[in-house]
Amino acid sequence: MSPRQRFFDCLHRSPPALFEAALWIAAEHDDGVEPQALLRDFKELQQTVGTGLPMLPAGELAQPLLRRMNDLGFAQDDFSPLRPQAALLHKVLQTRRGQPLALALIALELARGLGIPLAGVNFPGHFLLRVPGADHLLDPCGGRRLYPNDCRDLLHRQYGPDMKLNAEHLQTAEPLQMLQRLSRNLRQLHLTHDDFIAALIDAERVLELGNANAADYLARASLYQRLDCPNAERFDLERALLLSDDPIQRLRLTERLEHLPPNAIVH
């Protein structure tokens, strides 16, 4: 099977193999990635983390787990501009630097193996973690506790003071949502570094995961434009037009479609 097929095979398991699926995403971009070997190596990291945890009930070990990871060098990648390696899990395991979501995926797998309850939270702009039933969230980059006011401040730093915190921002993230967010992150990072083919691989995965929005189709259309594929670009622009609720965006999409050459007919 191809890495993409193995990726979806992980998602179809019960429960989904979230961490392994993220490794297969990395394998799509690097032929040298061997997910099964990385999973074996990960057991050593799990043992190292586990032996450094305090003797507490499992429900109280999530924050110590994140602090232990930080002690071992896992931290947010502050390189600017951010590189794709900050979201490719094999690179994050190697450098111990990554985006919040990548660090959270490692923490979630460690927690799963150690029997520590922990869940992802699809917070805008900065992925977070939650102990089920707790009155706070946790930052995967070091383990800081975030209460509602902290979450509001974080949201304002990311999007400005007009952005209002709501319940949707604090919802638990399902495996598919996390992997789609990871794919969107990689799509943007590869685009920022002008690697259009790699970005297209990620853009296609975003759409294959389902529940794609107009922005997802528009992102792939822009990649097709850069790669001089007008027929494919037209298809995605038409899909974006169908999904868009923004009248200004719809007008711009219509104008852009009018400037494309007619669909070529292949015999």
From TrEMBL:
TM regions (residue ranges): none
Pfam families, alphabetized: Transglut_core2 (PF13369)
Every Protein SirB1 N-terminal domain range: 59-183
Family under the similarity heading: Belongs to the UPF0162 family.
Protein name, per record: Tetratricopeptide repeat protein
Natural source organism: Pseudomonas ekonensis
